[in-house]
Protein 1
Amino acid sequence: MSHYESPLRKPLILQDKTLHDITEDICRPIEQKPTKLWYAAFTVASICLVWWVVCVSYTLGTGLGTWGTNKTIGWAWDITNFVWWVGIGHAGTLISAVLLLFRQKWRLSINRSAEAMTIFAVICAASFIVSHMGRPWLAYWPLPLPNQFGSLWVNFNSALVWDVFAISTYFSVSLVFWYTGLIPDFAVLRDRAIAKNLAPWRKSFYSIVSFGWMGTAKNWQRFEEVSLVLAGLSTPLVLSVHTIVSMDFATSIIPGWHTTIFPPYFVAGAIFSGFAMVQTLLIITRKILNLEAYITIYHIDMMNRVIMITGSIVGCAYITEFFIAWYSGVEYESYCFVNRATGAYWWAYWSMMTCNVFSPQIFWSKKARTSVALTFVVSIFVNIGMWFERYVIIVSSLHRDFLPSSWSMHHPTFTEVGIFIGSLGLFFVLFLLFAKFFPVIAMSELKTIVKSSSTQAKKYQKENVELVTSH
Amino acid sequence: MSNNKKYWKSIEDLQDNPEFIKKQMNEFAEPIPFEALTNADAKGDDTSGTNRRDFLKYMGFSVTAASLAACETPVRNVIPYVNKPEEVTPGVASYYASSYYDGNEFASILVKTREGRPIKFEYNEKGLVKGISSRVQASVLTLYDSARLRFATKNNSEIAWDKADAEVAAKLAKATNIRIVTNTIISPSTKAVVADFAAKYPSTKHITNDAISYNAIVKANEFCFGKAVIPTYKFDKANVVVSVGADFLGTWLDVPNYAGAYVKNRKPTKENPTMSKLVSFEAIMSLTGANADYRFQTKPSQYGAVLVTLYNEIAKLQGTPALTAIATEYTKEIAALAKELVAAKGKSLVVCGANDVNLQKIVNGINVSLNNVGVTVDVDNHSNLFQGDDAALEALIAEMASGKVDAIIINGANPAYTNKAFAAALPKVGLRIATADRADETASLCEYILPDSNFLESWNDFNPSVGVYTLQQPTIQPLGKTRQFQDTLLKLAGSTKNYYSIIQSTWETTFGAKGELDFTAFWNKALHDGVVMLTPTAGVSTSSCGANCGVGLSEAATKIAGYKGGAWELVMYQKNLGTGTLSNNPWLQELPDPISKVCWDNYITMSPVQMKEMGLTTLLEQESKMSVIEISVNGVAMKVPVFPSPGQKTNTIGLALGYGRTLAGKVGNNVGVNAYPAVKFENGNYSYLNINTTVGTKEIDKAIVATTQTHQTLMGRHIIHEASLAEFKNDPKAGNDRDLFVLKDGKTVEHKTAQEMDLWATPSLPGNERPNHFWNMSIDLNTCLGCGDCVTACNVENNIAVVGKDEIRRGREMHWLRIDRYYSSDSSQETGKAGMIGNYLDMEIASANPSVVFQPVMCQHCNHAPCENVCPVLATTHSSEGLNQMTYNRCIGTRYCANNCPYKVRRFNWFRYTENEKFDYTMLGEVERMVLNPDVTVRTRGVIEKCSMCVQRIQEGKLKAKTESRRPIDGEIKTACQQACSTGAIIFGDNNDVTSQVTKAKADDRMYHLLEELNVQPSVFYQTKIRNNEGTKFFAEAEHEAEHEAHAEGHATEAHATTEHHN
């Protein structure tokens, strides 16, 4: 691969890895038995998943009365979790699509995991769409399917229908994009399984999933074309999905929801939370799978910058909302925001402010940005903060809207909390399975930025040649 | 071989073909391909055969098909009539005129039956009251109550009626002291039956016991006017009404009559801007106090002082002798009030709620001196209700305790529940017979229970007041082996007549003598109408209080002067449940109290200021429990939760009667605390005011109290439009500012309504025309008293699920119609000094003596409905007649519509209420379910529901009009809520009909839309509330002083509130 080697830029991959090293490093965890750490994590995640199954089954069997929602607060943890999960997914798309188009090569070490995270997060999000419905067995009704019920059609005015389109498009494009990237790497695993004569299921499994990839020039050409097309398709989705999710609120009339600032603010928030989740996952992954050479401090630094910037954008949005609430002169709006910061849910609001606006400001310092431990802590903070952001928007706006007679409070039940924690279990089970059986770094793409073709080879050559001549 | 004939089957047979003969030996002409069927390797020989795989496929298919067919929902057959009864057409309701009387309340009703099942009561047009109370409406469920006995019992085991009759009659024959205890009997025929029984058993005495007694009024009237009666009060003829602790708009005496009459004089119009004035002196916040123009917080021990002072002030103005003065805290106000009363002489009314003969004598003295007797107080055309004699009951208890009584028959009353002494004495009676419909607290102490039939299964007649006669007819066969009380008495008296014939003969004697010649025709008409009214005689005006009156009044005043209250005073009052007879009724249990909005409980009401001082929790919230304290009254200790009640007089508490039943049935058992033991026999009557109560100051426990409204104040929002009468006189639009949008363009300032600011011109929008009908509803906040009768009507009509206390406190009541109750607050963003945030916190605190408003809120049927756009599946849509419709079948339950509803009127089915064991109220049991209205879908789990404006009634009315080839007439179609409202606050009709009442109401200057600024263009609108409280300067000054006091108290509150909020 013909890369210009800038003498100024630091290499994106450390420890002078060769092409072969990359293959070895990334395939090794897949081909070996899982570590104890993996087993421990998988056990915890599976327990959570079982809890999720129990709580969801109870809800489906008994009714939504098992949750803490009421006549005033129709949505609480359910939609909070939905938006939170969808938001988390955004980083994957941003990294794989937008950064691809902008030729940000540093994304190559992280895009695979980020995309996987997207897929799993959207699965979790979708589970909340279904489980929050009163009659989830009719969850297909918001799809504009031809039917025999008469001239029944969906309501194209409803933001929820837009949501259905947005999320389903997002999920399918992300899935195809992710899978396309996986094909050459699966082929590598297949070839290694055959060459090393590994377990038969590996041979057949990776043969099937690699779709007969031969690595021919034509294969590669089509691969590149498809990737580019999908990147082009995904890019608008980065903006559209959370824009539309935000319209669930923005197109309503509830003070605190009815806000034109929501689309950009939600998109920024989604990227913010997505990057935080990527940080959380990758810091763990690079440690467990020994991938420090690939997911470097540089990557962490870059992502921290994104977190800092999007966090500040979100902070600006919070302040703007307050300004507009006062400036509009609408009493319901003014009250809503005063109540948000000082009312019964003040703790949620200030948790959100602390986690989302104040905590990322530490990344103005390079020392903080490049500290793995601190990054991990802040990334968890941001995850929590962004959950609270959605909770604040949804619950604190609903709980005191127009008529004081209906004002109420929301108290989550065991089931409601169980479904949220369980959804984390679902996510991590999927992610751990992914980390065990799929290449967590896009090997073949990563190889395009390895400088071993030059520096390392030259070095090797030099050493060996010298050795030869010395004889 | 005589016969050479040869029979053959075929040519082959005839020819004796050898191959044929060979084949003939085989049963089957061709071999069955068993091989092919069973042998997997069958190949070649029989290509068309079925192989094993196919066999398995077929078998698999058949088994699956068979099992799928078996999975079908079990078929439940509807069996048609073989011979259709003349009066029953499936799908069409029949109405029967009847009467309701439960010892506490009388109503002329129409019973709506569907396919032979009574399902709803509506008021009888021919009756006095044009509305129907919650209790009467909900009582239809008593018919289907599973707690009712289905057969007679002796010592809790079934006994045949014949056997029971024989045994009881034999025992009665030996008895020497027989007593019959009933509630007030207003039935002339029942009285005749009791008299017959007494004739057969001469030792019989009949004692009347009302659960809640008004005996003091009767006694005072006997003393003053020589007539031992409850007078008819005519609130419509009074321009100034003074109530001293009498909740005549809530639960006092004959409320449905009073409420309708009271509002007649409360409807100011542009042409005639006058209305009556209501002044209330009371301790607890009652519906009357909440609706009063002036409300003075008064301790129960001061009621007498207020009355005496008022008497003296009136006497001073009229130059008549005064009584010994007693000091009150409202001297100035009472002086001003006396002036008003004297100015409205002959057109005023003073009533008092205390069951104390001394107080009632003073009341009579005041009404006499104001020339009200014969005008607003009619003792001639008196009421027949509440004839209970307290002293007689006390005497009976003494007799019973001494073992003198050897047989007792109890009907209608439940004295073992309302009177602990009675319960203790009852086992000493030899023969105890109860005729209750269930084994209640009294009946369970009796040897024999001879269960009375439900009133919907029985005949009866009533004479509720002078000149009013009504009939009660059965509308269903008895559901169990029950027999109505009167027939039981007849049987025991050895009579062969049945009660129906007794009624007829009573009526023949009563009306036959009045020139009704053809009795059969008269009877049929009376039965059809349900009511017969005689022309009332004119009330006789009495200007003096009888001969012994003067002395009597000063004696009474002297006694009143001796009433000294203790540290705490207790007021026992009634809530939706009334006296407790209807405790097992889930509709009533779940109907929020009009003031506190609490369901499923009684509790101590206390001033929130005082609660904070005592460290009791005042936070209303679904997870927060209320403090429980112990009170000791009349020697009885009770542990009761405390609920904040703004407007409650300091150092007084209130506690509702009618709760704490132990044997009412599965719904009513152990709900709340029984307060009857606190009732004391004092001054010859049962007193519901205890002026010496010990109240524990410490929280001893915590308990959940479920309320439907946790926030009390308006928060400065423009939700209720109100004005004073003086303002209304100047400008009929007073207080009704609808031009909310101010446009400033340079120097010009323009005011516009929300609709004028609409970006899209509404009428030109396609689909927004209402070519046929445009259903609208007007709610008059001025005549709405907040009672909640409309809520019950809605619940009964629309099959609304009862969800129970635990769900209520989670904010999940299903009521389509609710009544919001707001208290005024002393603070506002304009006047508050605590800064924006602090002001908001202050605005959450109700005033110490707040003014109260009620606002019924149901689906507003917005023509720009926010719920309709957001539904992803079009489950909620708009009809061309302006109705916001809900398609339950299409709803998937995202609850987006409920979130986006600014009025929060949409209700979600959190559970499958019809099948979930937790909700064993009106929809789970097979018998209870019979009460459901077949015209309204019972909603399943997971769908949203809300007010449909009784679309089933609209449809019925339209169809009726269509079959008669005409347009529906205005007023012909009534919603359930409108029909129940005895004050006529709700008007429903077609806005396209220019002459309709609702169209006129829409054009009224007082009309406004709730949350008009949102421009959702509701089809429901409200009329401004007008208060008559700026009449005299003095009253204004008095108000001002009270305000000062309230401010001082309010500030104390502030500090507490702030700390609580930050905790």
Protein 2
Amino acid sequence: MDLLQNNFSTFLQGFGYTLLSSVIALVVSMILGTFFAILQILPQKWVQKVGNIYVQVFRNIPLLIITFFFFLVVAKVIPMNGFTAGTIALSLYTSAFIAETVRAGILSVNSGQMEGARANGLSFWQAMQHIVLPQAFKIALPSLGNQFINLVKNSSILAFVGGLDLMYQGNMVAANTFDTFGTYIIVALFYLVITLPLSYYMQHLERKLKHAA
Amino acid sequence: MVTLGIFDAFTPQNVQYLLGGLGITVGVSVISVILSFIAGSVIGIIQFERLPYFSKFVGTINNIIRNLPLLLIIFFVYFALPKLGIHLPIFWATVVAMSTFESSMLAEIVRGGLESIDKGQFEGARANGLSNLQTMFYIVLPQAYKKMIPPIISQLISLVKDTSLAMGIVLSEMTYRGQIIYAQNSTYIIPVLIVITLIYFLLNYGLSLIARWFDSKLA
């Protein structure tokens, strides 16, 4: 308990940075992910290809490598700290998974919805925005929630580039106090505060959707 | 030799060193996927069977592990377990951490797979005189596993990517060895990162193609 009391502000700061990075990455990756999901369902073959290549590349390489790329290479041209580099990497990496989720959501919306909207005089983009996407997001909500949980967990990657997040601060406290056991348990509890309720809520949503179907 | 630039990083020793790291990456991934397949199946079946108290208990532990960052589990196994007198060498600490984490992921997949099997399969098997365990092993699991092949391969892809996290405890896998190589000379950073990226990509993309092939065959 002393351990928690003496280092509370450190843990809290780390928790704040973890949350901040996760929320920024969530917003950016939702926008990017939706964009690349739509690219993959447009009629033009080459546009589909671009969307597909983006998703395959970011899904199949480790997040750590993307982070190092921004921290070691891009930062030489555009100065940025570890937090920024890590958050950008996190956004790009997650956007590939969100693109897959949203694409599956769009495909599961009955094609009659798009046709009906078009027949009623809406343009492709209007129909996409007002008719198809809202339904697609509703279907995809549980998987999107799980992606956010992964995002929070993956933000621990910031510790590799001095990103001041929970994992980084935990390592600092562990190194200063030598109480690795207590420190990592506390860090775990901080992560669980975010991820566990979300996870149970997503399981609940999934069950609800399954019963509705 | 200055003009060659990009290729300077790839001396025979460096290439051999990097490929050795790839061996460790693949080794950790394969051992972990086998262990977590076994443990994940047991945990998934326990959750599916809804034994009083026990299933709830196992399910809760499973949820806790699943919702922690893998990096934290790796640090915990390597830096905190020694406080309890459990000392593991780096390689095995990584395997234990990754297997623990992946088991909790696979348990969810196994449970989902079992729940997707038609109730009539259980009833039919039981009516034909098979015991509970026999029904599970000979009738239900084989059908469930077939459906689970694609998600299990995507877990293997995650494993291959996630081994890079073990450089946090200085496991000499591919990403770590890449870092050692570009620490010699900062002009090596870009070429080494590109080559490592390519190797990971080819390995994982190949695996995802196999998953897609199974997916289309089973559909």
